[in-house]
Each structure stands twice: as C-alpha cells, then as structure tokens.
Amino acid sequence: MSAFASATPTDRAARGKQARGATPRSSHADWIAPPERPDPIALLEAQAESRVPELVPIRHGRMAASPFAFFRGAATVMASDLADSPVSGIRVQLCGDAHVSNFGGFASPERELVFDLNDFDETLPGPWEWDVKRLAASAVVAARERDCTRRQQRDVARAAVAGYREAMRTFAAQPTMSVWYARIDERELTERIRALRGEEGVAQFARRSAKARRKDSTRAFAKLTHRVDGEPRIASDPPLIVPLREMVAETEAHEIKRQLRDLLGAYRRTLPADRRRLLDRFRLVDVAHKVVGVGSVGTRAWILLLLGRDDEDPLFLQCKEAPPSVLAPFAGASRFANQGRRVVEGQRLMQAASDILLGWIRTTGIDGRQRDFYLRQLWDWKASVDLSTLEPNGLTAYASLCGWTLARAHARSGDAIAIAAYLGSSDAADRAIATFAEAYAERNERDHQALLDAIDSGRVAAETGV
Predict the structure, then answer these.
(1) How far apart are CA 323 and CA 320, in angstroms?
(2) Is 274 left (phi over 0), alpha (psi -120 to 50) or beta?
(3) pLDDT digits (tens, 9 = 90+) for 329-366
(4) 3-state helix, strand, coil in the chain (%, to 5)
(5) What residue ranges in 208-349 does DSSP mark as E strands?
(6) Which residues pair with 320 in a beta bridge?
(7) pTM metric for this prediction
(8) Which of 73, 41, 112, 19 is nearest to 415 (CA)?
C-alpha cells in the first residue's frame, strides 16, 4: 500500500504544514551565487563531451542568440544551482526542464488539441520546488526579452507560481480520479483566450490550431522527403538533416538499416499490445540524422520514415538519444536502467495524454558504444506559443496557465494535499519564488555573456544561423 493510500488527508496536510517550520516559504527567495559556484561554461563543456563533436558548435551558436536561448540550453547549469536550495522534502516526478517554451499544444489519442508539458528529456523524481523555480525564472527571462518593466517581470513570475499554488489547492480537494483526468483542451483554451483578448484573439487561436492540425506525418512527408528513383526518401539538408545513405557506404547503410529493423522489433516490445499491431502495418524505408531543439543539439537524434498501405501513407518516428538526466547528480539516479524508459515513464506519468507510440530501445552505435533512445511520432499537431508576440498581460496569463499545467503534472505523482498545505492560501510563496526568479534571471544574463565571451576568446566554438 502506498503512503498516499495509508495516510488520511488530515495527516498529509499536517505534513505540509510541518514542513514550513524547517523550510519557511520565505526562504525560497534566497539565492546568491556562492563563491565556489561551478563555472557555467565548464558545465556546458562537460556536457558536450558525450555529444556529436561536429554539432556542438551549432548548440553553442543557438544558445548564444539570446539570454532566453541560453536559459533553454542551460538546464544543467540551473540543476547545479538548485542543488543546495531550500526544499520542503516533498518529492514529485519532475519535468526537469519546465521553462515556458516547454509547454504547448499537441494531439491527444482522441485527436483533440491539448495543452501540456512537452519535453521530458530531464525527467526524474525530485523536489517540486525545482520545477517551479525553473518555470518562474524562465518567465522572468522571457519578460526581460520582451522589455517588460521590473514590475511586469515580477508579475509574470508571481502569476506562474500563483497558477501552480491555486491549481494544487484545487487538486488537493478533488477526488483522485478527477486529478488524473484533468486537462486543458481546446475548448478551455478558447474560453481563456476569449476572456483575455476577445473574439480577435479567439480567431487568431483558431488559425493557429488549424495550422497545428496540419503538422503531422503527412505534412512531414511533404516537407522532408523527395523521390529517388521513384521511391520516397528523406531529403538531405546538412548539417540539420543528413540521410544515412550520405553518412556511410551503401553496403554499410544496408546493414545498418537491417539492424534498425531489428531494433524496431525491440522498440515494438515496449508498446502496449494494440500499438504493436498498429506498428506492424508499417515498414521502414529510410533513416536520417536530424538536429533538434536547443539544449538537445549534439545528442543523437534520428528520424525514421515508415510507410503503411502505400507510398502515400507515411509515419515519421523520431528516435532521440536519452543520456542521464542533468538532475541525477543531485536528485539521485533513475530507478530505470534504460534512460529512454526513464523519459517515457516520466512523460506518461506527467502528461494528461501522451503519444500513442512512445517507446524505448538500447542499441550499440557505429562507434561501438551502447546508448539509450526513446521513440515517438515526429510531429503530432505540435504547436507552441510565440512568446515574442505576447504583450505583458498575455505573458502573465500564459505563465499562469503553465503554472496550472505543472501543478496538474506534479499532482499525478506527488502528494497534492501536502504541497497545497505547505504553499497555503496566501501569496507568501508566490512572492518568495518571484524574488528568486528575478535574481536568477540576472545571473542567467551574466552566464549568457560568459558564453559570448568564451566564443569571442576562442574557448568555445560556435556556429550561428543554423
């Protein structure tokens, strides 16, 4: 029997209130970089050691673009900074990289557009505060990039934390199954946008939703493939997309593709029985390496083109390397031996609805090293919010929505009653974590400048515009 099932709601609430004695809510405001703080550039260099060397300069170039781009790629830096920060002792399944651009829309299995967290590369159990602080700090960094005033920056951070706190209090009072089924769907998003921006905002959202619905394997097929000797193949676009046939000799490519078919069999075994039958209807026809994201650049990521009933029935899968979480040195190693499984299990636990083709494999690469990967559909109505277009009130509302979503994700794995009792009904935690977020956003700007300096000095190689 779990601790949740054996403890009464009164006991769980008492645990949260007692945690305030050891870790007052006001203590979360405190953050000053210690003199012995690890060099952020050294942390990035250490992280790059296991990545594809030719792609690391692209990662540095993308991170150099702005303080927010640096923040997105510097999860390892913030994990190190949060390691000794105050915590209540209440653990949840963490996203590990809960910044405001890692939320967005995608298709549920029922083919509805839902809003949720959408990146779980760093997921691991740990203190709920770490995700909330990264979210709040990212909100301030984004607000600074929009030239918001100091007060507006503070309001955005407080909205993120308040959204989390108020949602957690709601979930603490709900039946367990209600928490599990909670989600933000398109109808809920429409009503929120109508209240904030009126019918003009609703019309704009409808256009973006329609565009998201077109972003699927069929769209990827039209955008990423061409015909070679009458057969569909992934088009080359180096260094961002490099087909396997251009990476190795033809005979070796055939052998690797045969091995990949075997690996698809191993991946198949990680899927539920009905999804295995679905996958069986497709055949593998082409493979390419693809550069993805900001923080993930340099990890090994492949796209696999499969075809179903005919050459016009595509399925694109993304096979993405899963190294250990950046949180592992501080929160403890995953209980899963396979890091791909760590990502998949964390995603399934935190998301209201996950990709039906999520699975994992372990394989030995052409360099002879074993690596873990997870697989999912490449595009499945994926949509993101363009933060550069949001006015301060829109950014504040969006931050609050992200806070609600993060609370829902944490409530599925952690003790919502204890967390809600710890946070309380006042805005004490909102104010404290917003203060932390402002301080950390300033540090992030200095870290970003340190990267620029390292590039200028030649310490770090960077390739921009890629």
Answers:
(1) 10
(2) alpha
(3) 999 999 999 999 999 999 999 999 899 999 999 998 76
(4) 55, 15, 30
(5) 225-228, 231-234, 241-243, 283-290, 301-307, 314-321
(6) 301, 374
(7) 0.94
(8) 19
Neighbours of 226 (CB within 10 A): 9
pLDDT, average across residues 79-105 = 96
Distance CA 136, CA 437 (A): 6
- Amino acid found at 338: N
Among residues 456, 464, 458, 454, the alpha carbon closest in space to that of 41 is found at 454
**Burial of residue 424, with CB atoms counted within 10 A of its CB: 0-12 exposed, 13-18 middle, 19 or more buried:** middle
User: Cα–Cα distance between 245 and 242 in angstroms, integer?
Assistant: 8
Task: Look over the chain and give the mean of its residue pLDDT values, rounded to a whole number.
Answer: 92
Question: Token pair for residue 31?
Answer: 């953050």
What residues are paired with 113 via a beta bridge?
107
Domain definitions of the chain by residue range: 3-209+386-457, 217-377
Which two tokens mark 263?
A: 């690996």
Alpha-carbon distances of 11 from 14, 22, 99, 421, 423, rounded to whole Å: 5, 17, 32, 11, 16
pLDDT at 2: 64
